[in-house]
Design brief:
With about 70 residues, the protein is mainly β. It is about 10% helix and about 50% strand.
Length: about 70
């Protein structure tokens, strides 16, 4: 299977030390070509933050995302 998306150990924190929001706290997954993936989670669980990081609207605090090859 050809991997088209790799999300590896990403973290996204907003705010600063005294007011820190861990919007994404270490997640990893891959998506293969022709796969459909749904993202489910409660309000505020980080779905939009994840997509913003994948689309480079937002920048990850740690980890890496690889799109394509
Ligand atoms: N720009 C921002 N600055 C500070 N905190 C933010 C920012 N964007 C999101 N957050 C916080 O990050 C966490 C994840 O928010 P996010 O919007 O990614 O969740 P969501 O799963 O998309 O929620 P919903 O289902 O309501 O759309 C929340 O605690 C939110 O308040
Ligand atoms: Mg959202």
């Amino acid at each position: 299977m050809e991997k088209i998306l790799e999300v590896q150990n990403i973290e996204k924190y907003y705010g600063n030390k005294s007011n820190l929001t861990k919007a994404i706290d270490n997640i990893s997954f891959n998506v293969n070509k022709a796969e459909f993936v749904g993202i489910m989670g409660a309000s505020g669980s980080g779905k939009t933050t994840l997509l913003n990081c994948i689309s480079t609207i937002d920048r990850v605090t740690a980890g890496h995302i690889r799109v394509g090859r």
